[in-house]
Specification:
Largest sheet: none
Strand content: under 5%
Radius of gyration: 21 Å
Number of helices: 18
Shape: globular
Structural class: mainly alpha
Order of helices and strands: HHHHHHHHHHHHHHHHHH
Distance between the termini: 10 Å
Number of strands: 0
Amino acid sequence: MALPAFRTYFTAQAVSAFGSAMSALAVTFALIGLGASAGELGLVLASGTVPALVLMLVGGVAGDRWERRLIMLGTDVVLAVTMGALGLLVLSGRAEIWHFLVAQLVAGAAMAFTGPASVGLMPSLVPGDQLQSANTLRVTSRNIASIAGPPVAGILIATSSAGWALAADGLTYLVSAVLVARLPRSPGHVEAGASVWADIRHGWSEFTSRRWVVLMVLGFASYQATVLPAIFVLGPILAERKLDGAASWAVVLSARAVGALVIGLLLLRWRPRRPVLASTVVILLDVPFLLALASGLPIALVAAAAAISSAGVMAADTLWESALQENVPVDVLSRVSSYDWFGSMMINPLGFALIGAAAAGFGVNPVLLTAVGVTVVVHGLLMVTPSVRAVTRAPRATPAPAPDAPPVPDRS
């Protein structure tokens, strides 16, 4: 894309995503090296969800009130210091489990601010008719990072220490901060004097005034509580019982990564006229994958279904985010996005906890098939809902840069 500001932002996001993909593996193995139990490991890895949910609505207000570029710059600096310090603690042999818990809490708090801010920032960098392509490139870069990051981290862990991977993650956040600092200014849109609570209430009013947004967020919440846990909790169990265990599950995860990359290329050209309706359709591509898992089909068929499933999820996410950016006014976009994130994620931890317990009590296949039934019913209803079907593309006019915006060099 011939947009210097977007290329700078894209590079920043790609670099930090690569670092995050490395640290995800490094944190796990560093904790194992410290002798963490399964319960302690689960507690640390899940702890970031709590501050993300608690602060998400405040993060939405911040994204509309303050300069979004500075929010992302600030969180990059905080995470650079946090992960760099954690890496040094591991390398020096002084790391303790509570250090990782604190780092995860900081990362969760940062996500509460960067998520809404990044959604709101995009329309200031990209013309309305190119938002889907820009979102596709951004998500595709994260998928590439998720493939490339873990092997690099694995090499560092095997040859030296997980601390180097964590320190490298801190360095990638620092590089991202330098790049984000070069973006044009993006002043906030909320008038001074209003309280944070008043801004949250106004965001709620804007969110609930759009029936299609509310219904889709309820659909995403259902997905997060049923289908996602079914894949990542029940999937490995079924791979162990009906396939070749961990090796087969690794093939499935690799196939999902490939599917996400392929659909990224297609989304650069496929621009459905009704993006929200298309999002509800393609997310149902998870259904064949779940049925293939439950049926114990050969690994080749399961992997093919996994690739299609992941492609559908990425397409749904990209179409949805682009529809929000095209149809929600920029001055409330971060707050509406924060309610989207909050509503979608709110019951995800409960879903992960309950689906495992339900499988233990009723059996893996019945619970998985129930998840399939729920998602088919929910998204089937969304498809026939008039407000969902009515949303069409509404390209946003290209915003004028701030008068004192510094030029961003073209590095192509």
